[in-house]
Amino acid sequence: MTDQPLLAFDHVSMCYHDDSGETEVLSDFSLRLMPGEFVALLGPSGCGKSTALSLAAGLLRPDSGRVTLRGQEILRPPQHCGYMLQRDHLFPWLTVRQNAALGLRVRQKRLSARQKAHIEELLAACNLTEFADAYPAQLSGGMRQRAALVRTLSVEPDFVLLDEPFSALDAQTRLRLSDEVRQQLRGCATLLVTHDVSEAISMADRVVVLTRRPARICAEHAIDLPGLPLERRRDPRFREEFDRIWKELDVHEQ
Amino acid sequence: MSNREENRLESPAQARYRRLRRRRERWIQLSRCGILLAFLLLWEGLARFGVIDAFLLSSPTRMAQTLVELTRSGEIWPHLWTTLSETLLGFALGAGLGILLAIALWWSPLLTRILDPYLVVLNALPKIALGPVLIVWIGAGMPAIIAMSLLISGIVMLVTVLNGFLAVEMEKRTLLRAFGASKLQEFTMVVFPGALVSTVSALKLCVGMTWVGVIVGEFLVSRAGLGYLIVYGGQVFQLDLVMAGTAVLCLLAALMYLGVAHLEKRLLARRG
């Protein structure tokens, strides 16, 4: 681990302010995301996980500490960042293809032939070619989230931020989609935020367990399971990892 | 998808559904016409048999006669043109300024907060009360009438459109910002298209409000126009003229509303 991290949080603290007072959401939070690594941030709801993603996306600035991308402090939304939220947020007035190109269209009026071809490839990889000219209202929940995935990947991101991207889906779609997303993100540095222990273990190379608010890192687990999420869930060691992390969460819940 | 293809071979149940559907539609159209017809017949009958005084309440035939006379003498056209141009101008200005101000207020939440009480009062105030002020300031003429309709329609437009802008989901905007969008892009790519439905329904509201403004303005100051015709008819006890003017107004307002409804259909047609 001597090489430079892609994304780094260095002793980051963050507070929200409103009329009822100050709420500390992140406290002395440090984390490194290496190139190609998939890290899951696991913690109870409302503990400040999403704030960490907003910081990485350049939407917020920390009160103290630094968030850096390849050593450079993030001051505004970085060029090649993919952000996927709980709900797909596809624009209902755009077709699937137009939605997919949204991130590129923010930066340029016309797409290059290469970018267009790339989008078509991604649509094909997500089984959406047939629905490229359909409007989001015509798609099922899983298909919509896959279209959101294409939108995330079309900017050719250096790193991807996933904010509980499966929590709004039904159980079966969730499993299938986590497999698909993991496959599409192979080799792409990813930060996943979730409160679902099995989702974290089935997808990530490393699981970082957070405490209640203000979020602090209480443990880290390297997950050494082979294959995609569905395979991993069938692995006998999956259960062991699950119990280990579950206990840890329990300790900090009390 | 496959469902629609299978439906090409229509099942008897589907055919029956469609037949009932068509019959229902016909019945609705028929009833609509029937109500108007019954109303006119009843009115005419009551006037003929002397149950109501045709001098005070006019009758459909007298109204029609007046209309024919007005058309034949050509007297109606200047009035019609005056009112129509005032309304179109008032509508364009009211809708345009309303939308522009809504954009400005969306841009600056601070400005919105500061101006909020003024908007509330202006929205609640019966704008007709400002009629005398407008006449003194602008003079008794077409500009005062347009100012009146602008006041009435513009504020409704501003408030409705602004609420539409503010109702666009925050997370959609966050998503766009994460892609590096500027505030202008945020507006053109998500806020404006996201609020298009409410903007168009605000336009429909605006049509009605503009007519109110123009007719009230004409009541107060004008020497021409349908509103003038109606007030004049009332003053000289020519109720046939009042009714004829009202009928023309009904027709014009309905046509303009249909125009906006058509625009709505075209603007929103491409959405799934």
Structure description:
- The complex is a heterodimer of chains A (254) and B (272).
- Chain A has helices spanning 49-56, 96-100, 102-107, 113-125, 141-153, 171-184, 197-203, 229-234, 236-253; strands at 7-18, 21-33, 38-42, 64-69, 72-73, 81-84, 159-163, 189-194, 206-210, 217-222.
- Chain A is 35% helix and 25% strand.
- Chain A has 254 residues and is α/β, with parallel strands linked by helices.
- Chain A has 9 helices and 10 strands.
- In chain A, β1 (7-18) and β2 form a beta hairpin.
- Chain B is mostly helical and 272 residues long.
- Chain B folds into 2 domains: 2-52; 64-268, MetI-like (MetI-like fold), CATH 1.10.3720.10.
- Chain B has 13 helices and no strands.
- In chain B, α5 packs parallel to α8.
- The model of chain B has no long low-confidence stretch (mean pLDDT 89).
- The interface between A and B is medium-sized, with 26 and 20 residues.
Salient structural properties:
heterodimer; A: 254 residues; alpha/beta; Rossmann fold; 2 domains; six-stranded mixed beta sheet; four-stranded antiparallel beta sheet; 10 strands; 35% helix; 25% strand; globular; B: 272 residues; mainly alpha; MetI-like fold; 13 helices; 0% strand
Largest beta-sheet details of chain A? 6 strands, mixed
Number of strands of chain B: 0
Low-confidence stretches of chain B: none
Which fold name corresponds to the CATH topology of the largest domain in chain B?
A: MetI-like fold
The CATH H-level homologous superfamily of the largest domain in chain A: P-loop containing nucleotide triphosphate hydrolases
Termini of chain A, distance in Å? 34 Å
**Low-pLDDT residue intervals, each spanning 5 or more residues of chain A:** none
CATH class of the largest domain in chain B: Mainly Alpha
The profile of the biggest β sheet of chain B is: none
CATH superfamily of the largest domain in chain B: MetI-like
What is the percent of helical residues of chain A? Answer: 25-40%
What is the overall silhouette of chain A?
globular
Strand fraction of chain A equals 25-35%
Compute the number of helices of chain A: 9
* CATH C-level category of the largest domain in chain A: Alpha Beta
Q: Indicate the structural class of chain A.
A: alpha/beta
Number of helices of chain B: 13
Order of helix and strand elements from N to C terminus of chain B:
HHHHHHHHHHHHH
